[in-house]
């Protein structure tokens, strides 16, 4: 309550003094008393109080409702109304200004105190919400990609300058319209359309992106990369999605030369993946990676940090092709204990940092990058002698732990995607990796893979395969899953890279 400032607008001086005395006794600071709407507007601009107590019935050409309307529009300062009687016409007008409360004359101390306390509480919440929206809008406006924000029902509520440039239109031509009726994204090989309003596969995962897609808007067909991100994690009162678009017309013009560079980067990426059928620190490894196009944003690894600890991760960079591949290579260098960049993992070259600390530091580095590359990740720290594991995840699919007796556990590593939000909201989890246990890490391209009937492969089917082959070797399980995914997708073009990384304690 300390230092919260209130301006009183009341043309009855004696009554205004009474209100002031009450407010001072409650611990508030009264910045002034004025008697007209014009004076209220002037003082609101000069003093910027936290709250205004406004008499609805003021003498002069401007009543309290007119003054409150201007103050809210110009200054954004919330208002509590004073009224001697409840005239329906005045109340209907007052509602349009979204006041934080009403105080009915004659004044009662308890009612005044309660109303002001509730108004102050709501004012703080609304101010915080406005700040979050302003912050989010600034981020979206400054992004290099075109950005369109739409509600769960498909109504477009935001469009940045980049989107205006890609669509070659002004935002007023698309705001308020349904995205499904306005534009279409389809795969240029299969011509399968992405249903932006009813395809649950998009809304259940952190992202979906891909090259080889065409944006169709008013008969203009533009090759694009795109991604879709749920935004309710930023504003819990708004359920909607961010559609980020990148025009890749110029990139496709130089396809052949670019392909050579991409092939080189992808070969480099494949060379750093852990070898199959390899044992490190008593952990047997097996995996596969299926890129949906040239290059991949997926990466995984298991490595020793020192004699006591090993580390492992799986990550998924948003997007595909050369940008995602390059970002994954940068992350590989950062997530290694054997180079200078290893300082990210090890404190003073000795003790390893906990997973949540590693992800926070990674997020700080990528949050300030200008390439707008975001990624999901699971990072775990494995204590070799005891088998204890600490893990943290940023926006990634939860790992699956199968105990030696066949029981399945979902390791819930909560947190936001890296590179986008300042606060990841990480929760670090612990579990024991014992002899015969298996740990399975994967990217969303696996469980979101579609078959010919537009059905998701799903986590449920993945667990079913894991259970079916629990008595078989990792090699047989992994190869069976890989061939099963190929049969499942059939002739469908992959929409995302697919990674599967299996660990078993010998």
CATH homolog superfamily of the largest domain: PPM-type phosphatase domain
Question: Strand share of the residues?
Answer: 25-35%
What is the rounded distance between the termini?
61 Å
Task: Give the strand order, joined by hyphens, for the main sheet.
Answer: 7-6-12-11-10-8-9
Uncertain stretches: 200-206
The major pleated sheet works out as: 7 strands, antiparallel
Structure characterization notes:
- This protein has 506 residues and is of the alpha+beta class.
- The chain has three domains: 5-138, Rossmann fold; 144-253, 2-Layer Sandwich (Beta-Lactamase), CATH 3.30.450.20; 270-505, Phosphatase 2c, domain 1 (4-Layer Sandwich), CATH 3.60.40.
- Helix content is 35%, strand content 27%.
- Strands 7-6-12-11-10-8-9 form a seven-stranded antiparallel β-sheet. Strands 13-14-25-24-21-22 form a six-stranded antiparallel β-sheet. It has a five-stranded parallel β-sheet with strand order 2-1-3-4-5, sandwiched between helices.
- Helix 10 runs parallel beside helix 11.
- The longest helix has 34 residues, at 109-142.
- It starts with a strand and ends with a strand.
């Amino acid at each position: 309550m300390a230092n919260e400032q209130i301006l009183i607008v009341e043309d009855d001086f004696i009554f205004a003094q009474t209100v002031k005395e009450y407010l001072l006794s409650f611990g508030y600071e009264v910045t002034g008393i004025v008697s007209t709407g014009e004076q209220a507007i002037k003082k609101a601009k000069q003093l910027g109080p936290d709250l205004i107590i406004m008499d609805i019935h003021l003498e002069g050409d401007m009543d309290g409702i007119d003054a409150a309307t201007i103050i809210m529009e110009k200054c954004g300062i919330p208002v509590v109304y004073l009224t001697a009687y409840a005239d329906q016409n005045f109340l209907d007008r007052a509602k349009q200004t979204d006041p934080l409360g009403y105080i009915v004359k004659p004044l009662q101390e308890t009612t005044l105190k309660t109303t002001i306390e509730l108004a102050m509480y709501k004012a703080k919440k609304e101010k915080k919400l406005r700040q979050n929206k302003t912050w989010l809008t600034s981020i979206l406006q400054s992004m290099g990609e075109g950005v369109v924000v739409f509600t769960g029902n498909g109504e477009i509520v935001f469009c940045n300058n980049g989107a205006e440039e890609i669509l070659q239109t002004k935002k007023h031509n698309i705001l308020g319209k349904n995205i499904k009726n306005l534009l279409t994204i389809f795969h240029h090989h299969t011509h399968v359309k992405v249903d932006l309003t009813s395809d649950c596969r998009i809304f259940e995962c952190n992202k979906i992106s891909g090259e080889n897609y065409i944006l169709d808007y008013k008969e203009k067909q533009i090759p694009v990369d795109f991604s879709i991100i749920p935004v309710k994690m930023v504003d819990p009162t708004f359920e909607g999605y961010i559609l980020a678009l990148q025009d890749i017309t110029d990139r496709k013009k130089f396809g052949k030369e670019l392909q050579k560079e991409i092939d080189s980067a992808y070969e480099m990426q494949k060379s750093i993946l852990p070898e199959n059928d390899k044992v490190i620190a008593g952990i047997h490894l097996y995996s596969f990676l299926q890129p949906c196009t040239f290059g991949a944003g997926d990466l995984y690894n298991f490595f020793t940090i020192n004699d006591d600890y090993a580390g492992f991760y799986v990550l998924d960079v948003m997007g595909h092709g050369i940008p995602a591949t390059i970002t994954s290579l940068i992350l590989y260098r950062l997530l290694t204990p054997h180079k200078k960049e290893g300082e990210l993992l090890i404190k003073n070259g000795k003790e390893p940092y906990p997973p949540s600390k590693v992800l926070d530091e990674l997020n700080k580095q990528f949050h300030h990058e200008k390439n707008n590359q975001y990624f999901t990740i699971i990072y775990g720290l494995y204590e070799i002698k005891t088998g204890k594991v600490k893990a943290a995840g940023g926006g990634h699919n939860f790992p699956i732990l199968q105990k030696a007796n066949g029981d399945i556990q979902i390791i819930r590593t909560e947190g936001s995607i890296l590179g986008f939000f300042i606060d990841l909201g990480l929760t670090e989890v612990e579990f024991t990796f014992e002899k015969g246990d298996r740990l399975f890490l994967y990217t969303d391209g696996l469980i979101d893979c579609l078959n010919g009937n537009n059905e998701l492969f799903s986590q449920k089917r993945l667990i079913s395969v894991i259970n079916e082959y629990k008595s078989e070797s990792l090699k047989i399980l992994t190869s069976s899953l890989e061939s099963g995914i190929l049969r499942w997708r059939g002739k469908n073009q992959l929409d995302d890279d697919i990674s599967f990384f299996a660990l078993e304690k010998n």
